[in-house]
Design brief:
The structure is a single chain. By secondary structure, the chain is of the alpha/beta class. It folds into 2 domains: about 15-140 and about 260-330, Bordetella uptake gene, domain 1 (D-Maltodextrin-Binding Protein, domain 2); about 140-235, D-Maltodextrin-Binding Protein, domain 2, CATH 3.40.190.10. Helices cover about 40% and strands about 20% of the residues. The protein has 13 helices and 11 strands. The strands form 2 sheets. Strands 2-1-3-10-4-11 form a 6-stranded mixed beta sheet, sandwiched between helices. Strands 7-6-8-5-9 form a 5-stranded mixed beta sheet, with helices on both faces. α1 (about 15-25) runs parallel beside α2. The longest helix has 21 residues, at about 310-330. The protein starts with 12 loop residues before the first helix and ends in a 6-residue tail after the last helix.
Length: about 325
């Protein structure tokens, strides 16, 4: 089945653009410049977002750029270098000077899934990049059409054993695709995958009764859930989402061993000095932990979640190994 890899949409384009506009107009979060570490970059900073404006990494980038400039007095901009499923923007950062002034903001899948899924990638995450920090995460959910007549995971499994069902995702190799493949394996059911170019297209086909199940980010489907157009069955994450506190996790529903969260991170070119990397982490963590920043991102369905460089690097390695096993075991390919 042929498809192109697209980043999972964590926020709607309209709400994201409104947030970007409000960020540009809003006063910055006042912080004494003396609190910025001396190793923080001293020349113009460029945050490379390898996807178009309006997505979660773009929102994060513009909010961070505003704060970097306010706190350090150094100009900071966002550049959207689109194309190649994110690879064009990634290459820009790979080739940049390792001084911390050029940074990559990227979804998890490009770091942990694509290295196995795409054999001809021009980069190697561990060889070419220095992880700085995880930035934020977005919860994922399995939802169904009310017409399917199921309200729990147990009921879905029973239905899948007696009827051929289909599920939609934002594309082959997306975390949402692999989450459902893990579920199928653990539940012992066979459900047909129908890949789309984004969560909105998949949601449209669910509402149009062309597919039975949707594996997606909560923000992309929240309004449909509130409107009773989609029945949420379970979260793919370890904990329930505050956006849907009544929806159980897969573990609570009897399917243990699945914890899939969409997340977004920051990397610098390999060779960036440790003190510069640590300064970037310290300032970024401070920015994201501001209550007003958390409120802005929570409103978009994003949860601030930072990790120190070593822990973030370990996460990337761990999830890369996990997804490689799933991809190979399920014979998932992009054609």
């Amino acid at each position: 089945m042929t498809t192109s890899r697209r980043p999972v949409a964590g926020v709607t384009r309209r709400s994201a653009l409104l947030l970007i506009a409000s960020a540009a107009a809003a006063p910055a979060f006042a912080v004494d410049a003396a609190q910025v570490p001396a190793a923080f970059p001293h020349r113009q900073m460029t945050l490379i977002v390898p996807f178009s404006a309006g997505g979660p990494v773009d929102v994060l980038g513009r909010l961070l750029a505003q704060e970097y400039q306010t706190r350090s007095g150094v100009a900071a901009i966002v550049e959207n270098k689109t194309g190649g499923a994110g690879n064009i923007g990634i290459e820009v950062v790979r080739k940049a000077a390792p001084d911390g002034a050029t940074l990559l903001l990227i979804p998890a899948g490009n770091l942990t899934i694509n290295p196995t899924l795409m054999a001809d990638l021009p980069f190697n995450v561990e060889r070419d990049f220095a992880p700085v920090t995880m930035l934020a995460s977005a919860p994922n959910v399995f939802g169904v059409s009310p017409k399917l007549g199921v309200t729990t995971i147990a009921q879905l499994i029973e239905k899948a054993k007696s009827k051929k069902l289909s599920y939609g995702t934002p594309g082959v190799g997306s975390q949402l695709h692999l989450a459902m493949e893990l579920f199928k394996e653990k539940a012992g059911v066979d459900i047909l995958h129908v890949p789309y170019r984004g969560s909105s297209q998949a949601l449209g086909d669910l509402l149009g009764d062309h597919i039975d199940i949707l594996s997606t980010n909560v923000p992309a489907v929240l309004s449909a859930i509130k409107g009773k157009l989609v029945v949420p069955l379970a979260m793919t994450t370890a904990e329930r989402s505050p956006l849907l506190p009544d929806v159980p996790t897969l573990a609570e529903s009897g399917i243990a061993g699945i914890d899939v969260t969409s997340w977004y991170g920051m990397l610098a070119p390999k060779g960036v000095p440790d003190d510069v990397r640590d300064a970037l982490y310290t300032v970024t963590k401070s920015v994201l932990e501001q209550p007003v920043m958390q409120e802005k991102l929570t409103a978009q369905g994003l949860t601030v979640q930072t990790e120190a460089p070593e822990a973030f690097a370990a996460r990337i390695r761990r999830e890369t190994e996990m997804w490689a096993k799933v991809i190979k075991a399920r014979h998932i390919t992009i054609q």
